[in-house]
Amino acid sequence: EGKSVLVVGGAGYIGSHMIHLLRDLNIRHVVLDDLSSGHREALQGSRLIEGNCGDATLLRNVFAEHDIDAVIHFASFIEVGASVRNPAAYYENNVCNTVTLLSEMVRADVKKFIFSSTAAVYGLPETSKIDESHRKGPINPYGRTKLMVEEILGDFEKAYGLRSVCLRYFNAAGAHPDGAIGENHNPETHLIPLAIAAAITREKVLKVFGDDYDTRDGTCVRDYIHVCDLADAHLLALKYLNQNEASLAANLGNEAGFTVLEVIDAVSRLAGQVPYEVAARRDGDPAVLVADATRAREVLGWTPQYTDVNDIVSHALQWYRKIAA
Ligand code: UDP
């Protein structure tokens, strides 16, 4: 009682689904978000402190005013291509600002941290499913920023006793089934919302980035995981930190892969024909990225609910219709 969870980046895509869940469960929380890409409406009235987690003075005030027990950190830049063109911004925001946040946590004696990591920490897969022991070798600055933070967390645990759960997301997708929140990136770069927009507006032709990969139909295979299932995993991670003395890194994925053409097919069935053309490969895209999520299931007790790609697409579609209306 009385303790709050600080959700950094709570106004963003995955963060807002976390906030929705915390509200549903009456878990006290405060959001810190600079609204650089998040949306105030997505908070549905949850307490927002507007600012960046690289602002040490602001953080000091937040930790002094609120009785914070744990921090969940969603605020980061997420575009692989942009990280190649502008690595400075990525290292600054994803690494430096996170170090500031962690240092202020240590200063305020807040010792539980849940971090949005990514399958991009692995780089090119050496096995058909990737488990957490897979070699780490990110192939772009974005992935390197996430791996660096994971390594920094190891050092912070040894030196300061700050414990963490690093959740390595595969492809976050979908929207809350109640229709209240969803994905709203600007610019949008993700496959499912782009395919839906192409099907509905018929204004833009979806570009399929490469059809000569070594996969069943030549297009890339990805493991799409529903955003509400991701939020659930964070709640379990919080429980884990309350009940265990250790830190953890765990993959979050459905352990099933869909090709780009299979996703287009699912969208076509639910939203209408997706106009598409085959384009060049996108830099930094491995052919296949599929999770082995045994650890999340066994150690965190995680059971994803929306494992059917049709559910993921139909929730995304419901949200698309709402924001397009
Ligand atoms: N993709 C595509 N056309 C697009 C966007 C994405 O063919 O306009 C492909 C992309 O190459 C990858 C998959 O769809 O194989 C998922 O990409 P997304 O950007 O959604 O997520 P990422 O894997 O980069 O996190």
From TrEMBL:
Cofactor(s) of this protein: NAD(+)
EC number, UniProt record: 5.1.3.2
Molecular-function GO terms, alphabetical: UDP-glucose 4-epimerase activity
Biological processes annotated in GO: galactose catabolic process via UDP-galactose, Leloir pathway
Gene3D superfamilies per record: NAD(P)-binding Rossmann-like Domain, UDP-galactose 4-epimerase, domain 1
Lineage top rank: taxon: Bacteria
Top EC group: isomerase
Pathway field: Carbohydrate metabolism; galactose metabolism
Keyword field contains Magnesium: no
UniProt keywords, alphabetically: Carbohydrate metabolism, Isomerase, NAD
Ranges where the NAD-dependent epimerase/dehydratase domain occurs: 5-252
Quaternary structure, from the entry: Homodimer.
Protein family per UniProt: Belongs to the NAD(P)-dependent epimerase/dehydratase family.
Cross-referenced PANTHER family: UDP-ARABINOSE 4-EPIMERASE 1, UDP-GLUCOSE 4-EPIMERASE
Protein name per UniProt: UDP-glucose 4-epimerase
